Amino acid sequence: MPASTKPAIQLTPQISVNGKVVAFNEKKQTLLECLERENVEVHYHCRDGFCGACRVTLTAGEINYPNGEPLAFVGENEILPCCCVPVTDITLTIE
Questions:
Q1: pTM for the full predicted model
Q2: Alpha-carbon distance 88 to 72, whole Å?
Q3: Contact by Cβ (8 Å): 86, 79
Q4: What digits encode the pLDDT tens for the residues 8-53?
Q5: Which pLDDT belongs to residue 1?
Q6: Euclidean distance between the first and final Cα of the chain, in Å?
Q7: CA–CA separation, 38 vs 45, rounded Å?
Q8: pLDDT, tens only, 43-83
Q9: Domains of the chain by range and CATH?
């Protein structure tokens, strides 16, 4: 009987950002903390979703705000990595 050819199940969301791909391994961290760990520069101030300084563009995928929606203004296709986590593989643009 032939070996199974099922694709491997991916448990860790992948983050594509400015030509770099990093894995979101630690479920207790924010997207901002993950990006910092991988030396991806993101400007920030408050780290709590109040100021909006860390705003980046989400071009593909889904995120979640585990502690509720941020208080800072977030435009269409924008997210605040300081207080969100990826639910699926995501693609970001950081300017």
A1: 0.85
A2: 23
A3: no
A4: 555 789 999 988 999 998 878 999 999 999 999 999 999 999 999 9
A5: 47
A6: 52
A7: 19
A8: 999 999 999 999 999 999 999 999 999 999 999 999 999 99
A9: 14-93 (3.10.20.30)
What does the alpha-carbon distance between residue 86 and residue 32 come to, in Å, rounded to a whole number?
Answer: 11
Q: How far is CA 77 from CA 45, 51, 55, 57, 61, in A?
A: 21, 17, 10, 6, 10
Query: 2 is written with which tokens?
Result: 């032939």
Nearest Cα to Cα of residue 56 among 14, 12, 18: 18
Amino acid in position 77:
N
- The pair of structure tokens assigned to 50 is 């109040």
Residue carrying the six token digits 């585990």? 66
